[in-house]
Amino acid sequence: MHFPEYRARRLRRTETLRRMVREVRLGVDDLVVPFFVRHGKGIKEPLRSMPGQFRFSPDTLSKEIKQVDSLGIPAVLLFGIPRKKDPVGSEGYARDGIIQQTVRRLKDTFPDLVVITDVCLCEYTDHGHCGIVRDGTVDNDPTLDLLAKVAVSHATSGADIVAPSDMMDGRVGAIREGLDESGFENTAILAYSAKYASGFYGPFRDAAESAPSFGDRRSYQMDSANSDEALREVALDVEEGADMIMVKPALPYLDVIWRVRNAFDLPLVAYNVSGEFAMIKAAAANGWVNGDQCMMEALTAIKRAGADLIISYHAVEAAQIIQGLSKKASL
Ligand code: PBG
After folding, report:
1. Mean pLDDT of the chain
2. Is the CB of 124 under 6 A from ligand 1?
3. How far is 64 from 10, CA to CA, in rounded Å?
4. CA dihedral in degrees (303, 305, 307, 310; nearest 10)?
5. Residue with the nearest Cα to atom 8 of ligand 1?
6. Are 242 and 268 within 8 A, CB to CB?
7. pLDDT band at residue 330, thresholds of 50, 70 and 90?
8. pLDDT tens digits for 256-294?
9. C-alpha R_g of the chain
10. What pLDDT does 326 receive?
11. Is 273 in the pocket of ligand 1 (CB under 6 A)?
12. What distance in Å separates the CA atoms of residue 265 and residue 258, rounded to the nearest whole number?
């Protein structure tokens, strides 16, 4: 292929031509919306570092999810903020815990909506770590029983998919066993397989009140320099019974998404995390970038890298653009 016989610009001449040769198409079916939920009634608290995002109580969340459902978005991912925290995060598996109540309510109101629950302890522990702490470090093996208990309690409430985000070794196997023993062999596991220790989780930790009270998460979350290790992490989760695998964050790790895509055939999910969202919002608020265009470009890039599904705080706005309900950003 040579110039002047080949001119790449011929097929870029009009929007219709561009539409015909577009390789990647972002659809509403690709999107999952994360939500933060807390106890109470009538709550819709704006999150300072995530413009347009809120903490909801179960009743106001139901109203919000009507919109998600009517846009055709297939799934939501729930994060809970408990009434009280303790060293073992016992509110995480309480029958009347915030996630348990919310899942029951949502599955009642929206039976077709896929409800995914984040399985982790950091929102529920008083030290803010993702497992049981002994001698200043997170103790892997005793944490596994607790995670399985949380997953079973989410499944009992009706969760379709449980998503462990703790990064303990062996947790997918422990959760699969726990679910199967309790008769939840049809509850799926979405494993946060390659989850990096990332500065991009900052706004999330404000929203979920889950920042660690000492130290950091580098002894369990991955080092951002590694991608061979990501393949090992994914392989372990697949062997242990994961139904879907995840790379998180998304934009700084597109190469990891690409490598995982080429090595595994399970549905691959990318988490476009809070800091990625906040950066686009902040720059757009300053008039420095076109927020809608950057949002659609970022989501398309994540799909192009190989993700099948994208968890994103942009999901509702992106779905509005895809459905033609809001001005089309040029893709
Ligand atoms: C809980 C969890 C975190 C996120 C998802 N699940 C925070 C963390 O690991 O510190 C981050 C999501 C986001 O930033 O949007 N372990």
Report:
1. 97
2. no
3. 44
4. -50
5. 201
6. no
7. low
8. 999 999 999 999 999 999 999 999 999 999 999 999 999
9. 20
10. 83
11. yes
12. 12
Residue 327 has pLDDT above 90, yes or no: no
Buried b (16+ CB within 10 A) or exposed e, 90-106: bbbbbeebbbbbbbbbb
Place of tokens 């990501």: 230
* Ligand 1 center to 270 CA (angstroms): 13
* Ligand 1 near 130 CB (within 6 A): yes
- Predicted confidence (pLDDT) per residue in 96-142, tens digit: 999 999 999 999 999 999 999 999 999 999 999 999 999 999 999 99
Catalytic residues: 195, 248
Tell whether the torsion through CA atoms of 224, 227, 232 and 238 is positive or negative.
positive
Provide the b/e sequence for 199-233 (b: ≥16 CB within 10 Å). ebbebbbbbbebebeeeebeebbbebeebeebbeb
Give the distance (Å) from ligand 1 centre to CA of residue 205: 7
Spell out the domains of the chain, with CATH numbers in brackets. Answer: 24-322 (3.20.20.70)
| List of residues 6+ apart from 95 with CB closer than 8 A | 153
Is the CB of 39 within 6 Å of ligand 1?
no
Among protein residues, the one with the nearest Cα to ligand 1's atom 10 is 201
Determine whether the shortest distance from the Cβ of 276 to ligand 1 is under 6 A: no
- The string of pLDDT tens digits covering residues 20-38 is 999 999 999 999 999 999 9
Q: Name the pairing type of β-strands 244-248 and 188-195.
A: parallel
Going by CA atoms, what residue is nearest to atom 2 of ligand 1?
Answer: 165
pTM exceeds cut of 0.85: yes
* Predicted local confidence at residue 329, as pLDDT: 63
For residue 115, the cross-strand partners are 76
